[in-house]
Amino acid sequence: MKKYTVLISLLILTAALYGCSDKDSGSLSPESLFSKTCSECHKLKKVEDYSGDMTWSDVLVKMRTERKLEISDESAEIIIGYLNETFPPGE
Fold this sequence. Notes:
single chain; 5 helices
């Protein structure tokens, strides 16, 4: 019985971790990836209205380190590219 409990626990943990990853970043457009990722913590309007001194790359580094955003390097690069193109710094 204990073996089954451990097995079921591992299966649940695996499913939870898989569900929380950005596994589908390759199938999402850059805009959708941005929307999906950034709206988990705050309204997208906050991003659209950003006028700070940090580059988008620096903002993503801060979100990943200080706010514990868990996304792949590939997804971060896609989001940074989208932000630089759609909301250029200094404009």
